[in-house]
Design a protein that fits this description.
Length: about 230
């Protein structure tokens, strides 16, 4: 399955013949200064929660590409108010069928607010089942036993976890999360963007390897291919 990493927690998966983008925060990220958001392909944009570093470029990309934004009810209302033409509500516990496959929203343990401090609902993660493979994006979260429910619904080919610590899980908890969801392949996100979430990449990769898990930390703007079953 082809994955493009755009920095912080933003990545795109090409699955079911569609470009599925997650948490677009690019134009405000100095580390992603070489990424042109006008060139990003997106049929769907999944937003895990309302913090600026997960949705800054969602409106611009959605309106240009005609993409459908998917998120909790509060985000559904927010993006409708921003004039986005295609928005779909998906709260934790709910699932919906799209033309790429099925997506289920799941709980995430994290705060959420819009840039003005107003209420942005709860944070969530997403599990996607497609003909090309299944994967779980936890969104910003701490380690939670709710993750043990994920493999009851989907046999995962890989998972996407934050590894930067402080604001989310760090390496140790992300390894445990991989065990909870029964995967040996993890794409690490949410690190290096801010001074307090710097990651020693080689050390993180080694720690995952000790547990029999492959940690992918691609360069910003690069594409990787994770083999699926």
């Amino acid at each position: 399955m082809k994955i493009t990493y755009y920095g912080h927690s933003c990545f795109s998966v090409f699955a079911g013949g569609k470009h599925i983008l997650f948490d677009p925060y690019i134009s405000g990220n100095e580390l992603a200064k070489d990424i042109n958001i006008e060139e990003i392909k997106a049929d769907y944009i999944f937003i895990s929660h309302g913090h600026f570093d997960h949705m800054l470029d969602a409106v611009a990309i959605a309106n240009r590409a005609g993409a459908t934004i998917v998120g909790i009810w509060e985000l559904y209302n927010y993006f409708n108010a921003q004039g986005v033409k295609n928005v779909f509500p998906l709260n934790p516990g709910g699932k919906a069928t799209f033309d790429f496959g099925v997506a289920k929203a799941v709980s995430a343990q994290h705060s959420a607010s819009f840039s003005d401090g107003s209420y942005a609902g709860v944070a969530s993660g997403f599990v996607l089942k497609t003909d090309d493979g299944n994967f779980y994006y936890s969104g910003d979260t701490g380690l939670t036993l709710d993750m043990t429910l994920i493999p009851k619904w989907a046999d995962l080919d890989f998972a996407v976890f934050p590894v930067g610590d402080v604001l989310t899980m760090g390496v140790e908890d992300a390894i445990e999360a991989a065990n909870f969801v029964k995967t040996t392949k993890v794409l690490g996100v949410h690190y290096d963007t801010f001074g307090f979430i710097k990651l020693d990449k080689s050390e993180a990769i080694a720690e995952f390897e000790k547990s029999g898990i492959t940690l992918y930390l691609p360069e910003i703007g690069s594409e990787i291919d994770i083999a699926t079953r």
